[in-house]
Amino acid sequence: MLTYTLLAGLLFGLYFSLVGLGLNLIFGVMRIVNLAHGDFVMLGAFLAFWLFNLFALNPIPSLVVAAALFLLAGLPLYYLVVPRLLRARDPEMLSFILFFGFSQVIEALAAIAFGTSERSIPGGALARAVAAGAAFLGVAYTPGPIALFGQSFPIAWAASGITGTLAVLLVWAYLYRTRIGALTRAVMVSREEAISTGIDVHRVSAIAFGVGLALAAVAGVLAPFMLGSITPAMGVDVTITSFAVIVIGSLGNPLGTVLGGLVYGVSYMFMQSYYSSWANLLPYLLLIAVLLLRPAGLLGRQVRRA
Amino acid sequence: MIRQTLLAALSSLALVAPAAAADAPAEIKLGTLYASAGRYASISMPVHDGLKLWLAQKNAEGGVFVKAFNKKIPLKLVAYDDQSNTGTAATLYNQLITQDKVDILVADSGSVLTSVAVPIARENKMLLIDQTGTGAAFFSPDNPYIALMADPVSTIWPKPLADFLTEDGPKLGIKKVAMIYSTNDFTGTQANTVRKLIKNSTSGVELVYDQGVPTETSNYTVLLNNIRAANPDAVVHLGYAPNDIAFLRNLADSGVRFKFLFCIYPGLETELLEKNVGAAGLNGVFTYVPSSEIAYRSEFGMNLEQFKAAWSKAYGDGKVEFGFNSVAGYTTGLVLEKALAQTESLDQLALRRAIFALSGRLKTIDGNFELDPQGAQIGEITPLGQFVAEGSGVRLVTVWPHDVATGKPIYPAP
To answer: Whole domain around residue A112: which residue ranges?
Structure first.
């Protein structure tokens, strides 16, 4: 039971690293809090749902479609909203209000468009996609649960863990192995200095914003398998958990999200196993504990500038 | 003397009758809440739509007959969206009473969103028309301001389940039962009842796993592994529809099989559950057999077939599924209609008397309407059923009590 709980926590945590990654990237680059993050996750989930139901498109290719669409949608959305926001006296605080409004609008429109009931994608769809991928790579896999260290897990957990890991590696590569990534890090250190050195901060930020939304969409595609079902109202809970994850790791440090996600996932699973009634208090308890004991987050070096 | 008395009586009647007609309100304000979003949307919207269906029918007929005014009066629905939030719901219930001054206060669906209405209604001396809030704690001898319309009180729900486990269970080989439940009034009360009935039985059946989880739980994979480790012969899961969806999906994805599995909502909201977990995910699952599955002989209002047809016509877009809760909302309307046709006035306690007078005398699409002295619904029953495969779908077979059973339980479940 202990091993299973620990492994489940790590896999669950990797998924929540993915969920929080986009939120932290956007905050790190633009110092704005996207309170509609969970709603973008929800939109990604419904995109996958409709792609599956209308075109029988499997969740694995849907990951690519959703990432591409949200990346492209993020660019004009950035130019529409963020530059104006950043001209405000307190953009960080104003972003709370603005994106809260966005969240409400997105949820309301989604409820009108999709209805309020729970929706899902059959678990077998993901298993079949993984089986096809495994066959392509020459790896033996029969659709169904997968064995990890002698423990049996739903394939969705493994797929989410792998996707989360890949997403983290891609974000790392983007930040540390590309020119645009170097420019992005420069903006993250100081937006003013980046402007003074001639960096096109809006272009850099727009791409980061698009990548942030793409990561949210990817997490959304996997949400029907990791969160039971999807509804237009799921965004708020996802945003709260994401916020806890990135504060635990380090606000503004996208890679700190990985640690935050893992701490959250493992703690949550242990709470579920041993104090199940209290499990949902965990994000808030961790948030309070981190803010009191290590305000910069577990990977933070100093208290961030407000 | 006799002539004078008769004249006086006639004069007063002549004065009273026109006064009553003149005093009749232009409309009867029926105030309610619904949740268009959030955790309880899938149980709230069907109830709300069922109530609206009744209301639209009555208004199309010129209103509802009110005995106190001896005429039909149109109904006006004042409805607010609480978004499944109890804090918002509390504010809106107060608003309905103090600002909108509704004549009839109808609670949102489910125990969680009803729980905040109970003290507010009582404090304001408004009769709470409780649609589906079944928590046993809502009903007490010192609170006359509540009546449960369309669901049996939670202490009654699991009795057939517990009786089956303790009476037929041992014969089938069920000795060890695992129970997992969401910690809210609706399922918490049911868990207490199951626990009590199993512990008090002399069947030798024992609870080997008994855990509460937050109602917001959306992933049960680790919990399923823990339940499996307890090696139970039967598993009882008590949760709301989203809990059941997550539980059944996680069960299918994890490859875990239980010989007996009970969930609440596969029977109550079959259409919704089938959309989410598929017919294969429901096959073999035990559940309650609600009024949306049993064609009760309705003596007032539409029967099940007529109601289904009316529902499909009104809500054919499929965004809100037909099920037990849609029947519940319609039943609320029927009880109100019958009570208004008998009430002496729109005074809250007069309305209460009219509703209580229907107890044991009203048979609707939802079965027998019967209240205990505290206002808890005790007339409806929730037999135990099991889904069995039929073609590419599933069919619900009643397996307990024996006198209403339409088939035998399959144990171990396929």
So the answer is: 13-234
| A261 located within any domain | no
Residue with tokens 């009654």: B156
Residue keyed to tokens 């449960």: B148
The pLDDT tens digits for B164-208 are: 999 999 999 999 999 999 998 889 999 999 999 999 999 999 999
**Residue A285 sits at the chain B interface (C-beta within 8 Å):** no
Would the ipTM clear 0.95, i.e. be above it?
no
Residue B33: name the closest of B141, B143, B154, B115 by CA. Answer: B115
Pull the structure tokens for residue B329: 């909302």
What domains can be seen in chain B, in order of their start residue?
7-153+294-369 (3.40.50.2300), 159-290+382-404 (3.40.50.2300)
Nearest CA in chain B to A235: B38
Contact B219 A237 (CB under 8 A): no
The mean pLDDT value of chain B amounts to 91
Q: Cβ contact (<8 Å) for B37 and A226?
A: no
Encoded tokens for B264 = 């609440």
User: Contact B245/A228, CB-based, under 8 Å?
Assistant: yes
Query: B89, B37 in Cβ contact below 8 A?
Result: no
Number of domains in chain A: 1
Closest-CA residue of chain A to B85: A233
* Cα torsion through A193, A195, A201, A204, rounded to 10: -60
Q: Could you give the 3-state DSSP secondary structure of residue B389?
A: strand
Of A115, A154, A278, nearest to B253 by CB-CB distance is A154
Backbone φ, ψ for residue B362 (5° rounding): -120, 125
Report yes or no on A98 lying in a domain.
Answer: yes
| Segment A85-108, tens digit of pLDDT | 888 888 888 998 999 999 999 999
Amino acid (1-letter code) at residue B361: R
